[in-house]
Design goal:
Blueprint (H helix, E strand, L loop, with lengths): L1 H8 L3 H25 L9 H23 L5 H14 L11
């Protein structure tokens, strides 16, 4: 599995480890920040709370991952990764294909 990721992302073993750590720390930071922000909105914990929490986490994740990627030296990988995700869901600019 890790070999496939290395080939797909064209990275070495150390970079793959740093990328996976960035995903883990960024995801944890996102969950923590989301839980800290929810009481500020004064929403009861029901279906609306869940929907708002999912939206907040979805919006915070790219920022958290980019912030974590800076000290781990993987900013260029994650800026490209997030740009590709944005292009797939229709946000941002798509790169023009050269013919």
């Amino acid at each position: 599995m890790f070999d496939r990721l290395q080939q797909k992302w064209k990275v070495n073993g150390l970079q793959l480890t740093l990328i996976l750590c960035t995903f883990a720390i960024g995801g944890s930071l996102t969950g923590y920040a989301g839980r800290r922000l929810m009481p500020l909105l004064s929403i009861e914990q029901d279906w609306l709370w869940i929907i708002v929490y999912v939206i907040i986490v979805t919006l915070l994740w790219p920022l958290a991952v980019l912030l974590v990627s800076i000290p781990l030296g993987q900013f260029s990988f994650f800026s490209n990764y997030i740009r590709k995700i944005g292009a797939k869901i229709g946000i941002g600019r798509k790169k023009a294909k050269s013919d």
